[in-house]
Amino acid sequence: MAITTPRPWLASYADGVPHDIEPQQDSLSDLVRGSVEQYGDHVALEFFERTTTYAELGDQIDRAAEGLRRLGVQKGDPVALVLPNCPQHIVAFYAVLRLGAIVVEHNPLYTPRELRHQFEDHGARVVIAWDKVVETIQAFPADVAVQSIVSVDVTRAMPFLTRAMLRLPVAKARESRAALTTKVRGTMPWRELVASEPIDAHIIGPEASDVALIQYTSGTTGSPKGATLTHENLGANAAQARAWVPEIERGTSVVYAVLPMFHAYGLTLCLTFAMSMGSRLVLFPKFDPELVLKVVKKHPPTFFPAVPPIYDRLTKAAAAEGVSLRGIQIAISGAMPLSAEVVEPWEAATGGTLVEGYGLSECSPVLIANPVAPSRKAGTVGLPLPSTEVRVVDPDDPTRDREPGDEGELIVRGPQVFSGYWRKPEETAAVFVPADDGGADWFRTGDIVAIDDEGFVRVVDRIKELIITGGFNVAPSEVEEALRAHPDVEDCAVVGLPDERTGEQVVAVVVLRDGATFDEAAIRDFARGELTAYKVPKRVVQVDDLPRSLIGKVLRRQVRNGLLEG
């Protein structure tokens, strides 16, 4: 697509960063195959110090793809992954794509209710799941389409000595093992799936235009929905990330994956970026400063995507333990504001650079980032990436542009922007603005921004009522639905309030039924049974009534303002 809009920010790009990327002709399967061929003897994955080379990874992908084919997976079929960060997750992701099927990522810590709603939406018949969540999936009602479950014991990817220690007859070992794995029945074990012969090389794989991923997001309208991202979308975003950091060399870099792969941020800036670069991808099932510092001593990351609390905790842990962070080259932070109180200690400790970026799941996800250069600007999320166009428009009439420098809604287009939500044409139409120049339509981000004379973008506010806590999106409507199921709650409103540690905290305001007694702890305990931990309100406030519009809609913004003022 030819770019026809002005791009004043190009003059602010760091040296060596191109204005545009080449159109993506290859699928994600082609990208990983290229690294397998070029860097076969290089380490592709590291997990608790056990390594997998690119040649070994390629072989496992081909065997898992054949195993899935024998389970009946065909091109265009959704296949659900419910896995933490582990080598099996990487193999499963690319094995599904090798068949031209569609990966659907899920948070393995979701409650049964949360998982069931997503499965009802996408309809996957085959699931590759951490054995700790298998029973949850097996308990789904009969109208959920699951036919085959491949169970994954993550401990089997660990070194032999680590696995042996987990089997010691001591309480701590039993506790650690119970947190990582459990016995299940009625599934195909992962080891059987990858025991297949490699898939026939002549079986046609995906094209760049095929859908690769369904990424669930609360979107700009508040209710979770599946953003459909193509191989081209995800490959373009990885190419944009590579272009943004030209100093990182192919085949020699080290990328740390402390961000979960089921999150769009971790999927692109950790997985797709690393695999396309021939990098060593170090996998962490969760962020544990002690575990990360153990790896830093041997080979610090060249590229470290994360969120502000992770940088803060790691800086403090390294200082307390006397571990040097020198050699960490580039860190890119997203999902929540990055403060100088985090940046300055990190850069002093590492000698590297920490910059902020911005994106949405619908955009693969990265749209904007600060240059990795002295020209970066604190208080902004940076500049649009190569081949990305942005405009600032009137949120009430998104066909009208704001004057330069004025605040307005950010709308965007580029090769990383999705084409729509899974099976939701009305919701899709609502988030696009038709183009009048023959180019692609513009995606409405729902964020209010201002762009300065040099092209740096500053996020001012959100039109959407989405809450972002610790880098994760929380839809107020989803939390409200769960709370209304409590027998004492008549109605409620859920909002996000500023929090220094997580960016925002989830707060619920409830109206009780007649005769009920307010018990904040009991309401929060109830919510824990319905929602994953980061969605559970940190505070519950009782009120007599909620502010409403003339048609009876609860006015969350007024609720939020009242809490801030009170």
Explain how this protein is built.
This protein is of the alpha/beta class and 566 residues long. Among the domains are: 53-206, Rossmann fold, CATH 3.40.50.980; 467-565, ANL, C-terminal domain (GMP Synthetase, Chain A, domain 3). It contains 17 helices and 28 strands. Strands 7-6-5-3-4-8-9-20 form an eight-stranded mixed beta sheet, sandwiched between helices. Strands 17, 18, 19, 21, 22 and 23 form a six-stranded antiparallel beta sheet that branches. The N and C termini lie far apart (51 Å). InterPro entries: AMP-bd_C (IPR025110), AMP-bd_C_sf (IPR045851), AMP-binding_CS (IPR020845), AMP-dep_synth/lig_dom (IPR000873), ANL_N_sf (IPR042099), ATP-dep_AMP-bd_enzyme (IPR050237). Pfam families: AMP-binding (PF00501), AMP-binding_C (PF13193). Keywords: Ligase. Belongs to the ATP-dependent AMP-binding enzyme family.
Taken from the alpha-carbon principal axes, the silhouette is: globular
Mean pLDDT: 94
Which stretches are poorly predicted, pLDDT < 50 over at least 5 residues?
Answer: none
CATH C-level of the domain at 53-206: Alpha Beta
In terms of structural class, how would the helical and strand content be classed?
alpha/beta
Can you summarize the main beta sheet?
Answer: 8 strands, mixed
* Distance N to C terminus: 51 Å
| Strands in their spatial order, largest beta sheet | 7-6-5-3-4-8-9-20
Give Rg in angstroms. 23 Å
Using DSSP, what is the number of strands? Answer: 28
- The number of distinct helices, counting runs of at least 4 residues, comes to 17
Please bin the fraction of helical residues: 25-40%
Q: Please state the second-level CATH architecture of the domain at 53-206.
A: 3-Layer(aba) Sandwich
